[in-house]
């Protein structure tokens, strides 16, 4: 049957008999009805000659007669076109009916009224599918007038944006198009919430009129930047925000929490904070980098803005003078004339309103010196870091490798240390001091200070390659060579051994055979990490 109906529908030349009384609608009391209600069971019957009837109950979603039903219950209000197919003939009959909404079990509730730049947004809680008329009045005791109709508002919670020229006054919704014809099913009333913000001296002054919605306001919520900022009393109508920075833009919104659980939310108000009072002073931290330049970093209080900073410096406790202007928060002083004169620094900064702060704390980096003693030990001395809020908590002496990474470290106290166990991995020993603040995360490095270990090589005057494990090879005794070359020559000037690795020595053989005992000549040349060249030659005796 289904295939037959589809074939007839697409290929037969059916004619529509629109709105002819070819069939009637009956309610459950078998009464003829033209308008019926959501939830009512309606039966459709042919009004002409007998025969088999097929019905489609909603033409808007396409014709389908395969259900072969004559009764139907409509679940949503609206206008529906019902189509009859009789005796699988070539004639279709259409009739249009109005389905009215059922009476809701409870009136709709406006849960939230949000003001927008071009209208309002309503969040509605409904107990039935209904058409709702949105009404607006100039005041809570004013006359309400319709502004728009919301069709088929669903059961439960839903949001609706409505374009309006004016968003002031109070709002409610009224249920319409119900079976009973009632016009008195009305929601709660929610009134628009106003908000005004003005800029003071480094503060924003926020005022509003008490929300006029029926009943009292439980409390207000002030939003800043879209986030909850302050909970305020329901009787409050002003608030001063002093946690602001001059020149920074802030956006506020006010939420009125009403005693029935509804909310009224104002338009967002944006303002740029102004002021004449200078910003709070910065905190200054200074530290040397690996190039022995001083990094000057100002920490700006959280509520302030930053435009640029000025740096002041003195040497050896002299008078502070302006070093540079219009600098970033983290600047570098590459102009130190010498490390023998200890520098100290202060900074000021301008905020976004071009107001200049007071000067920061005085900050002086630790200055480190390193001196190689006659006994080979290294004597280290330094000045303590000055400028941490609660002083220095700890100090660490660090030895750096050629890449500037920490190779070795040890805790130190006071202002001096003697390194008695020198590392033989590096000819140049580079040290620095790390100072850490007490009860804070700040830390500072001193300058790097270096000493050179002696570049020397020695050679034995004889060796015995007899495989007894004692003096079996002839090789250099020394370290710290970046380049090295050793040659051993016999009495006829032939090179019997050569090496470019000072760790490799001559085992007394030549061309794979034991060389004869006797006196040989060695020639040696090496270069250290500083480019210093060392040359040496002399006799060596091979003993067998």
TrEMBL record:
<dbReference type="InterPro" id="IPR026341">
    <property type="entry name" value="T9SS_type_B"/>
</dbReference>
<dbReference type="Pfam" id="PF13585">
    <property type="entry name" value="CHU_C"/>
</dbReference>
<protein>
    <recommendedName>
        <fullName>Gliding motility-associated C-terminal domain-containing protein</fullName>
    </recommendedName>
</protein>
<dbReference type="InterPro" id="IPR013783">
    <property type="entry name" value="Ig-like_fold"/>
</dbReference>
<keyword id="KW-0732">Signal</keyword>
<dbReference type="InterPro" id="IPR035986">
    <property type="entry name" value="PKD_dom_sf"/>
</dbReference>
<dbReference type="InterPro" id="IPR036116">
    <property type="entry name" value="FN3_sf"/>
</dbReference>
<feature type="signal peptide">
    <location>
        <begin position="1"/>
        <end position="20"/>
    </location>
</feature>
């Amino acid at each position: 049957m289904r295939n037959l109906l589809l074939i007839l529908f697409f290929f037969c030349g059916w004619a529509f008999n629109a709105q002819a009384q070819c069939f009637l609608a009956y309610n459950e009391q078998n009464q003829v009805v033209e308008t019926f209600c959501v939830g009512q069971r309606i039966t459709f019957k042919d009004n002409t000659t007998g025969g088999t009837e097929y019905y489609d109950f909603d033409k808007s979603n396409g014709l389908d007669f395969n259900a072969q039903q004559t009764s139907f219950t409509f679940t949503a209000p609206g206008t529906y076109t019902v189509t009859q197919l009789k005796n699988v003939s070539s004639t279709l009959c259409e009739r249009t009916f109005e389905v009215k909404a059922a009476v809701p079990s409870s009136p709709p509730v406006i849960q939230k009224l949000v003001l927008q730049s071009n209208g309002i947004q309503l969040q509605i809680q409904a107990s039935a599918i209904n058409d709702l008329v949105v009404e607006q009045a100039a005041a809570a005791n004013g006359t309400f007038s319709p502004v728009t109709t919301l069709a088929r508002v669903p059961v439960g919670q839903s949001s609706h944006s409505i374009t309006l020229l004016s968003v002031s006054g109070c709002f409610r919704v009224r249920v319409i198009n119900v079976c009973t014809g009632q016009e008195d099913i009305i929601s709660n009333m929610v009134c628009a919430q106003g908000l005004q913000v003005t800029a003071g001296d480094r503060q924003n002054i926020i005022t509003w009129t008490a929300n006029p919605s029926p009943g009292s306001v439980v409390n207000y919520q002030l939003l800043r930047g879209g986030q909850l900022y302050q909970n305020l009393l329901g009787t409050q109508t002003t608030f001063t925000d002093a946690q602001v920075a001059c020149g920074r833009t802030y956006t506020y919104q006010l939420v009125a929490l009403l005693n029935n659980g509804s909310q009224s939310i104002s338009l967002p108000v944006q303002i740029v904070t102004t002021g004449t009072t200078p910003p709070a002073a910065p905190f200054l931290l200074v530290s040397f980098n690996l190039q022995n330049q001083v990094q000057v970093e100002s920490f700006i209080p959280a509520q302030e803005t930053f435009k640029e900073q000025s740096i002041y410096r003195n040497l050896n406790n002299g008078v502070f003078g302006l070093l540079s202007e219009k600098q970033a928060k983290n600047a570098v002083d590459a102009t130190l004339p010498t490390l023998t004169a200890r520098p100290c620094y202060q900074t000021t900064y301008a905020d976004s309103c071009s107001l200049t702060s007071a000067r920061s704390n005085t900050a002086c980096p630790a200055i480190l010196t390193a001196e190689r003693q006659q006994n080979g030990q290294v004597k280290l001395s330094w000045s303590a870091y000055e400028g941490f809020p609660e002083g220095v908590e700890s100090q660490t002496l660090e030895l750096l490798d050629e890449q500037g990474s920490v190779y070795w470290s040890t805790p130190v106290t006071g202002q001096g240390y003697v390194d008695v166990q020198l590392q033989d991995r590096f000819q140049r020993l580079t040290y620095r001091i790390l100072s850490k603040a007490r009860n804070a995360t700040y830390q500072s490095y001193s300058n790097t200070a270096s000493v050179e270990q002696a570049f020397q090589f020695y050679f034995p005057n004889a060796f015995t390659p007899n495989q007894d494990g004692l003096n079996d090879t002839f090789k250099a005794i020394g370290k710290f060579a970046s380049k090295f070359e050793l040659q051993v020559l016999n009495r006829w000037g032939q090179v019997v051994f050569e090496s470019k690795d000072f760790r490799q020595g001559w085992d007394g053989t030549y061309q794979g055979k034991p060389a004869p005992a006797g006196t040989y000549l060695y020639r040696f040349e090496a270069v250290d990490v500083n480019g210093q060249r060392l040359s040496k030659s002399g006799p060596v005796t091979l003993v067998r």
